[in-house]
């Protein structure tokens, strides 16, 4: 077991499933005190129990990240529990409705904007005053720089996150706070598997040079690296973790 995060407290939003869960497990194995945040208490409590049973330290906080007051209270509770904040993996997100932009309604933007964009912003905003150095990693998406027809509303929020990440990196650099993002490719999270039927999933896998789709664990290592001092001179970067899927442009 490595101890890159010994005595460090890391907040992970959207920790109940998928990449958030995988990242929390990876960080805890490397010594982090993880604060698990999400809308639903049950998966958070189950994950916290799993981490504690393995000898780690974790606490679960149910929170609507789209609520300014709720996020502020969550961060205060995290400090009360862990004593400090050393990093944030701003992961929580929703896919929303997949449809051509010409058929997209204003209401179709509401969920992705509230969670993906504003929820991420609120988490960062309320963590920043408590960070002394440390790192923030934002979960963006390969769709921020390539194209999946039908994912326009979702991709718009993810592209905005990459722009926000770069601005934050410039603004917070003098405080020795590093800000980066990861842009996962086709990752078989529970959320993705709800919209990918097996035939389409296999078609996507066939286009990747590695000839497979990714797993949450494939992304967790990159997240841990960016949050660690091993990436101490890396900031303002978007790291694509897609098995080469977007090499040469999208191929759907």
From TrEMBL:
UniProt entry keywords in alphabetical sequence: NAD, Oxidoreductase
Domain of life the protein comes from: Bacteria
InterPro entries, sorted: KR_dom (IPR057326), NAD(P)-bd_dom_sf (IPR036291), Sc_DH/Rdtase_CS (IPR020904), SDR_fam (IPR002347)
Keyword Repeat: no
Occurrences of domain Ketoreductase (ranges): 8-176
Record family assignment: Belongs to the short-chain dehydrogenases/reductases (SDR) family.
Protein name (database record): NAD(P)-dependent dehydrogenase (Short-subunit alcohol dehydrogenase family)
SUPFAM superfamilies (UniProt xref): NAD(P)-binding Rossmann-fold domains
Species in which this protein is naturally found: Labrys monachus
Pfam families: adh_short_C2
